[in-house]
Amino acid sequence: MGSTSTNSLMIKLQPKIYDYILFTFRIxxxxxxxxxxxxxxxxxxxxRGLSVEMLTSNRRFLMVFSLITxxxxxxxxxxxxxxxxxxxxxxxxxxxxxxLIIKVREExxxxxxxxxxxxxxxxx
Length: 124
What we know:
Blueprint: H1 17-43, H2 45-48, H3 52-57, H4 59-73, H5 78-116
Helix pairs in contact: 1-5, 4-5
């Protein structure tokens, strides 16, 4: 009878440095982007002249940003890109919601302080 050689059944690992670097970059890039988006959306608008109203009116650009970020950071599988895009966009929406709540609370606090006379009223 014929015998099979064990050499023909062995699986050889051929690591490629490009694949490893790309994999590492994706693992590090996705959490860093996802963790910085709320900070950017909450802290950036006021000093830079951006407003929560402007962010809410330009949501289509934020959706494009999440699509591009997902396309660059996930494998070329469409389902991975859709899931990553939806997660990033939901983080953006949550951050806008939190920024809106913070804005409303700050406006209420300053209005109450003006009414009580603790701070000066704005000159109009």
